[in-house]
Amino acid sequence: MSQTIHINVIENILGANDQIAIKNASLLKANGVMTFNIMASPGAGKTSFILKIIEKLSDKYRIGVIEGDTSAATIDADKISKLGLPAVQINTGGDCHLDANMLRSGLDNLDLKSLDLVLVENVGNLVCPAAFKLGTYKNILVASIPEGDDKPYKYPAMYSAVDALIINKIDLLPYVPFNMDYFISGVKMLNPDLVSFPISCKTGEGMDEWVKWVTSVHVDFRSS
Amino acid sequence: MSQTIHINVIENILGANDQIAIKNASLLKANGVMTFNIMASPGAGKTSFILKIIEKLSDKYRIGVIEGDTSAATIDADKISKLGLPAVQINTGGDCHLDANMLRSGLDNLDLKSLDLVLVENVGNLVCPAAFKLGTYKNILVASIPEGDDKPYKYPAMYSAVDALIINKIDLLPYVPFNMDYFISGVKMLNPDLVSFPISCKTGEGMDEWVKWVTSVHVDFRSS
């Protein structure tokens, strides 16, 4: 009985979440701000990837960052602020994902008129964030080599929910067992058209292809 | 208003969960079965660690394994079954953690009388599993070097909730930035008495110290 009540309440919350996500998308479109929801396991390299995007694209786009964290530690937001870019931290208070309402709070703390691109770093988690739409333009998953090649098979909901896949830490390929064909087969089974970018935030390898993709996606966004 | 209802329901579920966890602990104690709840990020090496424990301790203890997965893929359970050990897979149906009732279902599918040690592999997630007691004797966290040294600061609830910390993949220390002092400072701030074991499942380094700990904990369990 209590389980039935629980399911109903969750459905109501998801419904409310999706409504707020639609409003977020409208607000962002009206302000000409393209947004990426960047999801990953803890430690896959979301923040390093964001720093690399800033390095490559801050001369082209005015970039802001929203950092989702389960705790009050401002480690990631501090790294962005040090670069002189607007950064907002959302402390989820222990919650395992960002939701559309949290993103709205983050957006309310940015001057959207002065930005072209907002990078949203979700909580490190391969399960829950996949279930909550935020209203961002694209969902991006950062996988990493040391996590292992079986992750698409084990976390199918996340791999199915994204528009682009970053395969980070390819510099570690010589040191860990990772069968790229097996990994990509799992990805393609779930999400046949998913575009993927093998990169290393450490060496910079692969970032140019990613930057090209962002640029073409931005053209689509502007004309949408 | 809907948020208030949600919180109340969650509290009720947690209360029910804890009651089942207590029953699980009694059942396990009555059968002389020590259990570890093994938690980690996706890809930190939980399954490799379990395989290493089996390699080191299957001559001393009769071991069974319960594998928690968000999907129906039986990759990990198959690895255990191949060794001829009893393995049960719990498919959470997309849920981000095991709960006490799921563990109970797993235990119902093992012949507890014929086992000394059951290793429970939780869903790969550094947030949600920390909130759900299962009734296992000890909670173990597997961290890994490539995840980075800031994880205690970012996922404090998990680091606070465990009885032992495995620091896996120390063979990768030469290839990734990882400040062990900074990492350990974060751990000690949250959980001052937490015992930790730097290991490599790849090379076997550090496993002997871990095995000594398991043996001493088993003595405590038997006399408890």
Set out the fold topology.
Two copies of one chain form a homodimer.
Chain A: H1 2-30, E1 34-40, H2 46-57, E2 63-69, H3 75-81, E3 87-91, H4 100-108, E4 117-121, E5 138-144, H5 151-154, H6 156-160, E6 164-168, H7 180-190, E7 195-198, H8 207-223
Parallel strand pairs in A: 1-4, 1-5, 2-3, 2-4, 5-6, 6-7
Helix pairs in contact in A: 1-4
Descriptive notes:
- The structure is a homodimer of 224-residue chains.
- With 224 residues, chain A is an alpha/beta fold.
- Helix content of chain A is 42%, strand content 18%.
- Chain A contains 8 helices and 7 strands, in the order H-E-H-E-H-E-H-E-E-H-H-E-H-E-H.
- Chain A has helices spanning 2-30, 46-57, 75-81, 100-108, 151-154, 156-160, 180-190, 207-223; strands at 34-40, 63-69, 87-91, 117-121, 138-144, 164-168, 195-198.
- Chain A has a 7-stranded parallel β-sheet, with helices on both faces.
- In chain A, helix 1 (2-30) packs parallel to helix 4.
Distance from first to last alpha carbon of chain A: 46 Å
Question: Given the structure, what is the number of helices of chain A?
Answer: 8
Biggest sheet statistics of chain A: 7 strands, parallel
| Radius of gyration computed on alpha carbons of chain A | 17 Å
Class from helix and strand fractions of chain A: alpha/beta
Number of strands of chain A: 7
Q: If interface size is counted as residues with C-beta under 8 Å from the partner's C-beta, which chains form the largest one?
A: A-B, 42 and 42 residues
The 3D shape of chain A can be described as globular
Poorly predicted runs of 5 or more residues of chain A? 1-7
Spatial arrangement of strands, main beta sheet of chain A: 3-2-4-1-5-6-7
Mean pLDDT across residues of chain A: 93
As an assembly, this protein is homodimer
Helix content of chain A: 40-55%
Strand share of the residues of chain A?
15-25%
Q: Helices and strands of chain A, in N-to-C order?
A: HEHEHEHEEHHEHEH
